[in-house]
Design a protein that fits this description.
Helices cover 33% and strands 15% of the residues. By secondary structure, it is α/β, with parallel strands linked by helices. The protein is elongated and about 70 Å long. The structure holds (2R)-2,3-dihydroxypropanoic acid (DGY). (2R)-2,3-dihydroxypropanoic acid is lined by residues 53, 75-77, 100, 281, 283-284.
Protein backbone atom coordinates (compact mmCIF):
# COMPACT_ATOMS: atom_id res chain seq x y z
CA UNK A 1 0.00 0.00 0.00
CA UNK A 2 1.10 3.56 -0.70
CA UNK A 3 1.86 5.78 2.27
CA UNK A 4 0.24 9.15 2.87
CA UNK A 5 0.80 11.89 5.43
CA UNK A 6 -2.24 13.83 6.63
CA UNK A 7 -0.95 17.11 8.01
CA UNK A 8 -3.82 17.79 10.51
CA UNK A 9 -6.54 15.78 12.19
CA UNK A 10 -9.56 15.37 9.93
CA UNK A 11 -13.09 16.34 11.04
CA UNK A 12 -13.85 12.76 12.13
CA UNK A 13 -12.27 9.32 12.56
CA UNK A 14 -14.47 7.74 9.86
CA UNK A 15 -12.54 9.72 7.28
CA UNK A 16 -9.25 8.31 8.53
CA UNK A 17 -10.71 4.79 8.51
CA UNK A 18 -11.74 5.32 4.90
CA UNK A 19 -8.21 6.36 4.01
CA UNK A 20 -6.81 3.32 5.83
CA UNK A 21 -8.65 0.99 3.45
CA UNK A 22 -6.39 2.25 0.67
CA UNK A 23 -3.25 3.63 2.28
CA UNK A 24 -0.80 3.41 5.13
CA UNK A 25 -1.89 6.58 6.93
CA UNK A 26 0.19 8.85 9.14
CA UNK A 27 -1.80 11.69 10.75
CA UNK A 28 -0.21 14.69 12.47
CA UNK A 29 -2.17 14.93 15.71
CA UNK A 30 -0.89 18.34 16.87
CA UNK A 31 -3.33 21.17 17.48
CA UNK A 32 -1.04 23.47 15.49
CA UNK A 33 0.43 22.77 12.04
CA UNK A 34 3.58 20.63 11.93
CA UNK A 35 6.81 22.62 11.79
CA UNK A 36 8.74 22.68 8.51
CA UNK A 37 11.17 20.15 9.96
CA UNK A 38 8.42 17.74 11.00
CA UNK A 39 6.55 18.24 7.74
CA UNK A 40 9.67 17.39 5.78
CA UNK A 41 10.50 14.34 7.89
CA UNK A 42 6.97 12.90 7.92
CA UNK A 43 6.48 13.51 4.17
CA UNK A 44 9.62 11.56 3.38
CA UNK A 45 8.81 8.35 1.49
CA UNK A 46 5.14 9.29 1.10
CA UNK A 47 3.23 8.74 -2.13
CA UNK A 48 0.66 11.38 -1.19
CA UNK A 49 0.06 14.29 1.15
CA UNK A 50 -3.28 15.53 2.43
CA UNK A 51 -2.50 19.12 3.33
CA UNK A 52 -4.22 22.21 4.75
CA UNK A 53 -3.68 25.82 3.68
CA UNK A 54 -1.42 26.28 6.73
CA UNK A 55 1.24 23.92 5.34
CA UNK A 56 3.72 25.47 2.96
CA UNK A 57 4.66 22.81 0.44
CA UNK A 58 7.70 24.31 -1.25
CA UNK A 59 10.46 23.19 -3.61
CA UNK A 60 12.51 21.98 -0.66
CA UNK A 61 9.86 19.49 0.47
CA UNK A 62 8.87 18.50 -3.06
CA UNK A 63 12.43 17.92 -4.35
CA UNK A 64 13.32 15.94 -1.23
CA UNK A 65 10.61 13.41 -1.91
CA UNK A 66 10.98 11.34 -5.11
CA UNK A 67 8.09 9.01 -4.23
CA UNK A 68 5.56 11.87 -3.98
CA UNK A 69 2.84 11.71 -6.63
CA UNK A 70 0.00 13.83 -5.29
CA UNK A 71 -0.67 16.75 -2.94
CA UNK A 72 -4.37 16.85 -2.07
CA UNK A 73 -5.03 20.22 -0.50
CA UNK A 74 -8.09 20.47 1.73
CA UNK A 75 -8.96 23.97 0.51
CA UNK A 76 -10.12 25.62 -2.66
CA UNK A 77 -7.08 27.93 -2.55
CA UNK A 78 -3.72 26.31 -3.19
CA UNK A 79 -1.37 29.28 -2.77
CA UNK A 80 0.41 27.28 -0.04
CA UNK A 81 1.77 24.91 -2.68
CA UNK A 82 4.57 25.68 -5.11
CA UNK A 83 2.78 24.59 -8.29
CA UNK A 84 5.84 25.18 -10.49
CA UNK A 85 7.88 22.83 -8.33
CA UNK A 86 5.05 20.26 -8.37
CA UNK A 87 4.93 20.47 -12.18
CA UNK A 88 8.69 20.06 -12.41
CA UNK A 89 8.47 16.80 -10.48
CA UNK A 90 5.21 15.68 -12.17
CA UNK A 91 3.27 15.79 -8.92
CA UNK A 92 -0.47 16.22 -9.18
CA UNK A 93 -2.03 18.95 -7.04
CA UNK A 94 -5.72 18.91 -6.21
CA UNK A 95 -8.07 21.27 -4.33
CA UNK A 96 -11.64 21.16 -2.99
CA UNK A 97 -13.76 23.52 -5.10
CA UNK A 98 -17.56 24.04 -4.99
CA UNK A 99 -18.21 22.41 -1.61
CA UNK A 100 -17.34 25.61 0.29
CA UNK A 101 -18.93 28.08 -2.12
CA UNK A 102 -22.17 28.51 -0.18
CA UNK A 103 -20.68 28.73 3.32
CA UNK A 104 -18.09 31.30 2.19
CA UNK A 105 -20.75 33.33 0.39
CA UNK A 106 -22.97 33.20 3.49
CA UNK A 107 -20.11 34.48 5.65
CA UNK A 108 -19.47 37.30 3.17
CA UNK A 109 -23.10 38.39 3.40
CA UNK A 110 -22.96 38.11 7.21
CA UNK A 111 -19.97 40.49 7.20
CA UNK A 112 -21.82 42.91 4.93
CA UNK A 113 -24.77 42.90 7.36
CA UNK A 114 -22.41 43.22 10.33
CA UNK A 115 -20.81 46.35 8.89
CA UNK A 116 -23.97 47.90 7.47
CA UNK A 117 -25.79 47.63 10.80
CA UNK A 118 -22.70 48.56 12.87
CA UNK A 119 -23.23 45.51 15.08
CA UNK A 120 -19.66 45.41 16.38
CA UNK A 121 -19.65 49.12 17.22
CA UNK A 122 -23.03 48.83 18.94
CA UNK A 123 -21.93 45.80 20.93
CA UNK A 124 -18.68 47.51 21.95
CA UNK A 125 -20.62 50.59 23.04
CA UNK A 126 -22.77 48.42 25.34
CA UNK A 127 -19.75 46.68 26.80
CA UNK A 128 -18.05 50.05 27.38
CA UNK A 129 -21.13 51.35 29.18
CA UNK A 130 -21.78 53.92 26.46
CA UNK A 131 -25.34 52.87 25.72
CA UNK A 132 -27.57 55.82 26.59
CA UNK A 133 -31.31 56.30 25.98
CA UNK A 134 -32.57 55.76 22.44
CA UNK A 135 -31.38 58.62 20.26
CA UNK A 136 -32.68 59.54 16.81
CA UNK A 137 -29.22 59.88 15.30
CA UNK A 138 -27.00 57.51 17.27
CA UNK A 139 -25.19 54.57 15.63
CA UNK A 140 -26.81 55.04 12.23
CA UNK A 141 -25.80 52.47 9.67
CA UNK A 142 -26.73 51.67 6.10
CA UNK A 143 -29.55 49.90 4.34
CA UNK A 144 -28.55 47.11 2.03
CA UNK A 145 -31.70 47.71 0.03
CA UNK A 146 -30.75 49.53 -3.17
CA UNK A 147 -27.11 49.87 -2.09
CA UNK A 148 -24.27 49.05 -4.48
CA UNK A 149 -22.09 45.96 -4.07
CA UNK A 150 -18.87 45.65 -6.06
CA UNK A 151 -17.46 42.15 -6.43
CA UNK A 152 -13.78 41.91 -7.36
CA UNK A 153 -13.19 38.41 -8.73
CA UNK A 154 -16.45 37.06 -10.12
CA UNK A 155 -15.77 33.34 -9.66
CA UNK A 156 -18.05 30.79 -8.06
CA UNK A 157 -18.07 32.39 -4.61
CA UNK A 158 -18.49 35.89 -6.05
CA UNK A 159 -21.41 34.58 -8.10
CA UNK A 160 -23.05 33.06 -5.03
CA UNK A 161 -22.58 36.30 -3.06
CA UNK A 162 -24.18 38.21 -5.94
CA UNK A 163 -27.19 35.89 -5.98
CA UNK A 164 -27.89 36.49 -2.29
CA UNK A 165 -27.18 40.23 -2.66
CA UNK A 166 -29.70 40.47 -5.50
CA UNK A 167 -32.32 38.84 -3.28
CA UNK A 168 -31.69 41.70 -0.83
CA UNK A 169 -32.24 44.17 -3.66
CA UNK A 170 -28.60 45.24 -3.77
CA UNK A 171 -27.25 46.48 -7.10
CA UNK A 172 -24.32 44.28 -8.03
CA UNK A 173 -21.36 45.10 -10.24
CA UNK A 174 -18.24 43.08 -10.97
CA UNK A 175 -14.66 43.55 -11.94
CA UNK A 176 -12.74 40.61 -13.35
CA UNK A 177 -12.88 37.82 -15.88
CA UNK A 178 -16.34 36.40 -16.51
CA UNK A 179 -16.29 32.75 -15.45
CA UNK A 180 -19.98 31.88 -15.43
CA UNK A 181 -22.96 32.91 -17.51
CA UNK A 182 -25.90 34.79 -16.05
CA UNK A 183 -24.13 36.94 -13.50
CA UNK A 184 -26.87 39.05 -11.92
CA UNK A 185 -25.44 42.55 -12.57
CA UNK A 186 -22.99 44.49 -14.71
CA UNK A 187 -19.30 44.02 -15.43
CA UNK A 188 -17.47 47.34 -15.07
CA UNK A 189 -13.85 48.50 -14.96
CA UNK A 190 -12.07 48.59 -11.60
CA UNK A 191 -12.16 52.38 -11.28
CA UNK A 192 -15.87 52.47 -11.90
CA UNK A 193 -16.47 49.77 -9.29
CA UNK A 194 -14.27 51.44 -6.67
CA UNK A 195 -15.81 54.88 -7.17
CA UNK A 196 -19.42 53.72 -7.00
CA UNK A 197 -19.73 50.76 -4.64
CA UNK A 198 -20.96 51.06 -1.06
CA UNK A 199 -19.60 47.59 -0.27
CA UNK A 200 -16.62 46.03 -2.04
CA UNK A 201 -16.04 42.32 -1.64
CA UNK A 202 -12.88 40.52 -2.75
CA UNK A 203 -13.13 37.02 -4.22
CA UNK A 204 -9.80 36.59 -5.99
CA UNK A 205 -7.43 33.66 -5.66
CA UNK A 206 -3.95 34.51 -4.42
CA UNK A 207 -1.10 34.38 -6.93
CA UNK A 208 1.76 36.60 -8.12
CA UNK A 209 -0.62 38.94 -9.96
CA UNK A 210 -3.04 39.35 -7.07
CA UNK A 211 -0.52 39.74 -4.22
CA UNK A 212 -1.04 43.23 -2.71
CA UNK A 213 -3.47 43.85 -5.58
CA UNK A 214 -5.48 46.42 -3.62
CA UNK A 215 -3.49 49.38 -2.31
CA UNK A 216 -3.76 53.04 -1.36
CA UNK A 217 -4.32 54.08 -5.00
CA UNK A 218 -7.49 52.00 -4.92
CA UNK A 219 -8.61 53.06 -1.44
CA UNK A 220 -8.40 56.73 -2.42
CA UNK A 221 -10.81 56.06 -5.30
CA UNK A 222 -13.39 54.52 -2.96
CA UNK A 223 -16.26 56.45 -1.32
CA UNK A 224 -15.24 57.66 2.13
CA UNK A 225 -18.00 55.60 3.73
CA UNK A 226 -17.37 52.48 1.60
CA UNK A 227 -16.79 49.18 3.36
CA UNK A 228 -14.24 46.63 2.22
CA UNK A 229 -14.95 42.92 2.76
CA UNK A 230 -12.34 40.20 2.27
CA UNK A 231 -13.06 36.48 2.56
CA UNK A 232 -10.39 35.31 0.09
CA UNK A 233 -6.76 35.78 1.17
CA UNK A 234 -5.24 38.49 3.34
CA UNK A 235 -2.21 38.99 1.08
CA UNK A 236 -4.43 40.32 -1.72
CA UNK A 237 -4.69 43.60 0.21
CA UNK A 238 -1.71 45.81 1.01
CA UNK A 239 -2.56 45.69 4.70
CA UNK A 240 -0.48 48.63 5.87
CA UNK A 241 -2.10 50.79 3.16
CA UNK A 242 -5.48 49.59 4.41
CA UNK A 243 -4.56 50.51 8.00
CA UNK A 244 -3.60 54.00 6.83
CA UNK A 245 -6.72 54.38 4.73
CA UNK A 246 -8.86 53.46 7.73
CA UNK A 247 -6.91 55.70 10.13
CA UNK A 248 -7.20 58.67 7.77
CA UNK A 249 -10.91 57.88 7.21
CA UNK A 250 -10.33 57.52 3.48
CA UNK A 251 -12.75 54.59 3.59
CA UNK A 252 -15.52 53.79 6.05
CA UNK A 253 -14.57 50.37 7.40
CA UNK A 254 -13.44 46.85 6.70
CA UNK A 255 -14.54 43.33 7.56
CA UNK A 256 -11.73 40.85 7.11
CA UNK A 257 -12.08 37.10 7.46
CA UNK A 258 -8.52 36.77 6.21
CA UNK A 259 -5.46 38.78 7.19
CA UNK A 260 -1.75 38.95 6.54
CA UNK A 261 -0.42 37.17 8.56
CA UNK A 262 -2.81 34.71 10.15
CA UNK A 263 -3.33 34.69 13.01
CA UNK A 264 -3.21 38.47 13.18
CA UNK A 265 -0.93 39.56 16.06
CA UNK A 266 -2.87 40.94 19.04
CA UNK A 267 -0.85 44.16 18.65
CA UNK A 268 -2.21 44.85 15.15
CA UNK A 269 -3.55 48.37 14.66
CA UNK A 270 -6.54 46.86 12.89
CA UNK A 271 -7.75 45.33 16.14
CA UNK A 272 -7.89 48.76 17.76
CA UNK A 273 -10.31 50.16 15.21
CA UNK A 274 -14.02 50.00 15.99
CA UNK A 275 -14.99 50.09 12.33
CA UNK A 276 -12.87 47.03 11.51
CA UNK A 277 -14.30 43.61 12.13
CA UNK A 278 -11.94 40.64 12.00
CA UNK A 279 -13.06 37.02 11.97
CA UNK A 280 -10.53 34.16 12.16
CA UNK A 281 -10.70 32.66 8.62
CA UNK A 282 -14.17 31.13 9.04
CA UNK A 283 -15.28 31.11 5.39
CA UNK A 284 -15.50 27.32 5.17
CA UNK A 285 -15.94 26.71 8.88
CA UNK A 286 -19.18 24.75 9.05
CA UNK A 287 -19.40 21.08 10.01
CA UNK A 288 -21.03 20.14 6.71
CA UNK A 289 -18.53 22.05 4.59
CA UNK A 290 -15.39 20.84 6.37
CA UNK A 291 -16.65 17.25 6.08
CA UNK A 292 -17.29 17.75 2.37
CA UNK A 293 -13.83 19.31 1.90
CA UNK A 294 -12.07 16.43 3.66
CA UNK A 295 -14.14 13.87 1.72
CA UNK A 296 -13.22 15.54 -1.57
CA UNK A 297 -9.52 15.65 -0.72
CA UNK A 298 -9.71 11.92 0.12
CA UNK A 299 -11.53 11.20 -3.14
CA UNK A 300 -8.73 12.86 -5.07
CA UNK A 301 -6.17 10.59 -3.36
CA UNK A 302 -8.23 7.43 -3.89
CA UNK A 303 -8.87 8.14 -7.56
CA UNK A 304 -5.22 8.61 -8.37
CA UNK A 305 -4.34 5.54 -6.34
CA UNK A 306 -6.78 3.57 -8.53
CA UNK A 307 -4.99 4.84 -11.64
CA UNK A 308 -7.68 7.34 -12.53
CA UNK A 309 -7.46 11.10 -12.94
CA UNK A 310 -8.27 12.90 -9.66
CA UNK A 311 -11.42 14.98 -10.18
CA UNK A 312 -9.99 18.29 -8.90
CA UNK A 313 -6.55 18.63 -10.42
CA UNK A 314 -5.30 22.22 -10.57
CA UNK A 315 -2.09 21.59 -12.54
CA UNK A 316 -3.24 19.59 -15.56
C1 LIG B 1 -10.03 27.70 1.15
O1 LIG B 1 -10.52 26.59 0.98
O2 LIG B 1 -9.17 28.16 0.40
C2 LIG B 1 -10.53 28.47 2.30
O3 LIG B 1 -9.81 29.63 2.51
C3 LIG B 1 -10.53 27.60 3.54
O4 LIG B 1 -11.31 28.19 4.49
Amino acid sequence: MNKIFVTRQLPNEELVKKLEKFFIVDVWKGENPPSKKILKARSKGCWGLLTMLTEKIDLDIISDNPSLKIIANMAVGYDNIDIQAANRFSIKVTNTPDVLTKSTAELTIALIFMMAKRLQEGNLAIRNNEWGPWHPSWMLGKDLDNSKLGIIGPGKIGHEVAKIAKSLNMQVMYYGKKTKKNFPGNFVNLENLLKNADFISIHLSLNKETTKFLNMDHFTMMKNDAVLINTSRGQIINQSDLENALKKKIIGGAALDVTDPEPLPATSELLKMQNVFISPHLGSATKKTRLAMASLAIKNLIELNAGRKPPNMVNE
